[in-house]
Specification:
- Helices cover 52% and strands 13% of the residues.
- The chain has nine helices and five strands.
- A five-stranded mixed beta sheet has the order 2-1-3-4-5.
- The longest helix is centred in the N-terminal third of the chain and has 27 residues.
- It starts with a helix and ends in a 6-residue tail after the last strand.
Length: 231
């Protein structure tokens, strides 16, 4: 019995060591997605233009089936979308991208907590994605609640608290208060990611990663940049 317990402990230890070694290797020696950040942004812009025009090409049944088979054994998304959970803002659709093309992290108000940040870091360090788009959107309910100073129960309050800095920064500005805060929230999250060490900050500084903020218009379907890609 003692021998069996010893063997089991050794087997578990071997598995842990193998996983750790693989993880370290993957994080430090990832392969790029095959496109530059500028090319990735152009792909997204062209896809959004197709969506606005109603001429989708990447989300047809045949294309989805083909791309599903192609990426079944592995993924190399060319962009990371950090967006809101709003049901009207599905990145794969509004950017007209195939299965496996984009790595998506969605939370209310595109708030980035440690779990979301770790997910983003994974796509950069392990999958080689060269571009992050922080995507806010028109008439965001989470931002509207924060602007209104809503007192929400449970963990909803945590989301609103994370958006409050954008509300304070834009308070009193001309124009629509909610839309001003929507734009600022996307820019704030962009800045947060730019300075998130060690993985994202180092990738930005080395030129292997670019981060931009953008806004999606619910009425027109258009995505417009709020910041220019880093040179």
């Amino acid at each position: 019995m003692k021998t069996r317990r010893t063997f089991n402990r050794l087997a578990v230890l071997a598995c842990v060591m193998a996983f750790a070694t693989t993880g370290i290797h993957s994080a430090s020696a990832h392969e790029p997605s095959g496109v530059t950040a500028d090319e990735a942004l152009q792909r997204l812009e062209k896809g959004n233009a197709r969506f606005v025009a109603g001429h989708l090409s990447s989300t047809t049944p045949a294309t989805i089936a083909a791309s599903r088979r192609k990426v079944a054994q592995g993924q190399k998304p060319f962009a990371i979308i950090v967006g809101c959970s709003d049901s009207r803002v599905g990145p794969e659709v509004i950017f007209d991208q195939r299965v496996g093309d984009i790595f998506v992290i969605r939370t209310a108000g595109e708030v980035v907590d440690p779990v979301a940040l770790g997910s983003i870091e994974y796509a950069v360090a392990h999958l080689g994605s060269p571009l992050i788009v922080v995507l806010g959107h028109e008439r965001c309910g989470a931002v509207a609640a924060a602007v209104a100073g809503a007192k929400e129960p449970g963990h909803i309050a945590t989301v609103l608290k994370a958006i409050e800095p954008a509300v304070r920064q834009t308070k009193g500005q001309p124009g629509d208060a909610v839309d001003n805060a929507v734009r600022q929230q996307a820019l704030d999250v962009e800045r947060q990611l730019q300075n998130a060490g060690p993985i994202l900050k180092q990738a930005v500084q080395s030129g292997t990663l670019k981060i931009v903020a953008a806004r999606y218009d619910l009425d027109s379907g258009e995505v417009s940049l709020l910041s220019a890609p880093q040179k």
